[in-house]
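Late entry, written up from scratch paper. The run itself happened at the end of the previous shift, but nothing got recorded in the book at the time, so transcribing now.
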Amino acid sequence: MSQDHNYDNYVEIYNKQGRQAAQEYVINECGLDYPAFQRKMRNESMYTFNRSTKKFGLKSEETHFMSLEELCGAKPSTSKVENQALSRNSEFDNLIIELIRDRITELHRFIRLDKSSNQIFVYSKAIKDNGYSLSVL
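Output as recorded:
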C-alpha cells in the first residue's frame, strides 16, 4: 500500500470519524506508531491540519513555508496599512516625547522643585538673562 494512499485514508477517517478512529487505523493498518505517522505525514504529504476547523485539508499552493506568525502561534496582523499607520504614530509619539524632554530640560535651568521641603525655587535672574519675563499668579 502506498504512503499517499495511507495519507488519503487517514485524512478521510480523521475528518469523518475523529482522532481516535484515525489512531486505530494508523496502528492497525499502517504498522506505525501514531506520532511517527504524524511526523511523516507533515513532512511528506500534501495535507495540512487546520486548527480552527480541526480537520485536515490540502496544502495551499501559494505558500510553501509557514509564516512567522504561524510558527509562533500569534495571529497575523490585519493589514500592512495598519502596520504603517501604527509605525507613523509611534514615530510621531517619539517626536513629541523628544520635544517635551527638550522643553523640560530648558525649564529645569530656571526652576527647581524640592520635594523634601515642598519648595519651588525660581531663578528670576537666569530667566531675565535668557530673554524671558516672569509673572507670578
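The chain has two domains: 3-72, 80-129.
(Scratch paper discarded after transcription.)
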